[in-house]
Amino acid sequence: MRPNVHIAFHIYDFLVLFGPVISWWCFPFERVIGFLQKINTNDHIGGQLEATLSKSFARGAILRRWLRRPDCPPVIRELRRLFERTFPAYNPPASSPPREVDGECAHYKHLGVNFSRANVHMGNSLVYYYPPNSRVAVAGSIERIVSVSGEITLEIRRQAPLEVGQYDPFLPFYPYFPAQTHSSKMLDTTDTVSISDVLSHYARYKFSKGRCVVLNLARS
Ligand SMILES: *[C@@H]1O[C@H](CO)[C@@H](O)[C@H](O)[C@H]1NC(C)=O
Which UniProt keywords are given for this protein, alphabetically ordered (predicted)? Predict the structure, then answer.
């Protein structure tokens, strides 16, 4: 039996001991591994590789620490400016530039997150947002992204709520596990909101009896 399969038998115990998986899963560590694997090692192995990985990682961490210090030497700041101009791809803008011509866009990046309309990329169209005159976020799917005088507005079709008498098995765990059950149908009407009223993406999984579970993917 592989360790992963063995550990799967203990998930119940881990849930009881440590709480929702989101607080102890390994994705942050996987991200560091991915980062380490991208370090250029010139295909050296056996000691040299490990030394290169740990030295590069430590050098990067020390450099970032210097850049955040108020007494960072001006020469390092200047080198950063040159580096960012030389390798702009490593610092892509967090938001798409404002559109010069009014009209529809297929996708739009806002504060580092890429939003698309549903017929371009369904996953990127699923968002939690504040509908007009409300501060209670609802789930919906972006149908149109429209730019008028550089302002971006979205037309979003809301996910229908559960029908009366339908059960939400995730309710007892909310908000520790930010999943909610909705109807898998969409409402007939759309909301028109500003891009600043959009809070996060969500993942949607259709399960039984016309229901779907909606998991908030907010990063904070
Ligand atoms: C945003 O998503 C769309 C649709 O998947 C893709 O074509 C586009 O390249 C993405 N844009 C950015 C900036 O990642």
Answer: Membrane, Transmembrane, Transmembrane helix
